[in-house]
Amino acid sequence: MGTVAKNKWVKYVFMKKSTALSPYLPETRMMSQQSLWGLLERHRHVMVKPVWGSRGRGVIQVSDLGHDRYAIHYESMKTVIQGRENTYRYIKSKTGSAQYMVQQRIDRPTIHKQPFDLRVIVQRKKNSSRWTVTGKVIKVAGKGYIVSNNTRSSGKLLKFNPGIKSSTISYLPAAALEAEIDKVSLLSVRRLEALFPEHRIYGLDVAADRQGRVSIIEANLFPAMSHFRKLKDEKTYRRILSYKRG
Ligand SMILES: Nc1ncnc2c1ncn2[C@@H]1O[C@H](COP(=O)(O)OP(=O)(O)OP(=O)(O)O)[C@@H](O)[C@H]1O
Ligand SMILES: [Mg+2]
After folding, report:
1. How far is the CA of 118 from the centre of ligand 2 (A)?
2. What's the rounded mean pLDDT across residues 103-131?
3. Where are the strands (E) in the chain, listed by range?
């Protein structure tokens, strides 16, 4: 199962087939000229990312600036390219022959001008079918980056309530937002249970947009524990470990 578990495209297709979950998944296609220009026309901003990626490696943001100009944001580098042909060639120079997909960008809210999303840990104990949200952390992208991966972007980790309060969506009721995030996270793992019946832990990458609409960016089967260690949230960290043992 090692292979399917890390294949973002297979997991996306499987989740998208759930009518309950589908509205929470950003539109995603395998990368091609056609899918790239199609998604850019519909969404103006897309993320191009490796099917087998991890830790934010190889994630490229492409934006349609109009007048046949495209902005590329890769790692901490930004560049503007004239023309579709040049743009596609430039992206190809970064992606090489690796399998890539293209995904609608979620227009994330910010904290101190930097976009953020969340890592949500969902677990069940051995011999239990009850899923529980055991941890949640806000991941703020480091200055100049689009990916929120803590190590790659030198980003920040924050607890949920103080994070939301210091963000551009502080006007939203945090409790309602949190309940929605939990609901969509639980829907996701219940769906994935059919694909990975023995699995007991997920780390979901969840993003809210500027209106507070929740999306699932992806479901990780082997989530890092380092977020909760770094956050110094002892209580959450211990809870996650006790579910792992239990
Ligand atoms: N569609 C999107 N809209 C907005 N931001 C996105 C989108 N896709 C990815 N990102 C940003 O890029 C990060 C990395 O993307 P993704 O999780 O798909 O790749 P990854 O390499 O598997 O990362 P990880 O190993 O941390 O899970 C996300 O956590 C998020 O910050
Ligand atoms: Mg991820």
Report:
1. 10
2. 98
3. 28-30, 45-50, 60-66, 69-74, 77-82, 100-104, 110-111, 114-123, 132-140, 156-158, 201-208, 214-220
Residues 20, 184: Cα–Cα separation, whole Å: 9
Q: Are strands 201-208 and 214-220 parallel, antiparallel or unpaired?
A: antiparallel
Q: Please list the residue range(s) of the chain that carry CATH number 3.30.470.20.
A: 108-245
Would you say domain 25-104 falls under CATH 3.30.1490? yes
Architecture, CATH, for domain 108-245 = 2-Layer Sandwich (3.30)
Per residue in 201-222, pLDDT (tens digit) is 999 999 999 999 999 999 999 9
Give the pLDDT band (50/70/90) at residue 113: very high
Regarding the beta carbon of 57 and ligand 1, being less than 6 Å apart is answered yes
* pLDDT digits 0-9 by tens, 163-207: 999 999 999 999 999 999 999 999 999 999 999 999 999 999 999
Contact 205 CB / ligand 1 (< 6 Å): yes
Report the residue among 218, 225, 227 best suited for mutation to probe ligand 1: largest number of ligand atoms under 8 A from its CB.
Answer: 218
Pick the ligand that lies closest to the CA of residue 137.
1
State yes or no: pLDDT of 2 exceeds 80.
no
Q: What's the predicted TM-score (pTM) here? A: 0.97
Which tokens in the block code for residue 160? 């949920």
- Averaged pLDDT of the chain: 96
Pocket test for ligand 1, best of 16, 205, 209 (most atoms within 8 A of CB): 205
Residue 54 near ligand 1, beta carbon < 6 Å: yes
Identify the residue whose C-alpha is closest to ligand 1 atom 28. 147
